[in-house]
Structure formats: structure tokens, C-alpha cells
Fold:
Amino acid sequence: QVQLVESGGGLVQAGGSLRLSCVASGSSFRILAVDWYRQAPGKQRDMVASITLRGFTNYADSVKGRFTISRDGAKNTVYLQMNSLKPEDTAVYYCHTNVGPIDYWGQGTQVTVSS
Structure:
């Protein structure tokens, strides 16, 4: 089993920054890719960033150049550094991974960007 616990969300002004954390438990974390998704009210959940065990990263076009995903193996933690935040970044952000056909999700953390 894999458990993901997110933190770091909050309310910030446009142009500000937040760093989200996703702490993973379970031995499978060390061999899995980890993704950040976000979901705004009434919209589908979309991937914003992904990182592999070896550190390869991918980003949605909407966040490229503003968000950075990273991982700290010693802490079993994946981070999402969010800079130059915009009101359209407002959403619940979720940490995600999978083990074969099984998906694991964190509880979500709310990010609200005011104008």
C-alpha cells in the first residue's frame, strides 16, 4: 500500500509563491513516478507536473516556467514549487501515483490565488 499526504496549500495574492509537499509512505514510493494534479470546481482533474524516480520531469503547458517539481528521497517527499501564481491556478491540488492498475491519491490541498 502507498499513502500520500499533501500539505502547503493556502491563500496567496497573484504573483506570489507556494510550495506544496507530498509525503509518501510505503516501499513502492522509491520505484514509482509521482504526479501533481489539480481540479477546479466543475472541471476535470488534470496533470500539472510529473517526476520519475530518476528525476525526469514533465509539465503542463499552462504551468511550464512557473512551477517546478522535485523530490527528496531521504524524506520520501515530492514538492511542487509554484511561482508567479495566477488566479486561474486556483484549484485543489492532488498528489498521485500508481502501482500497476491501482491508483493512489492524496487528500488534496486547496490553493487559492486572489487578484
Observations:
- The two ends are 40 Å apart (CA to CA).
- The chain has no helices and eleven strands.
- The chain has a mean pLDDT of 93.
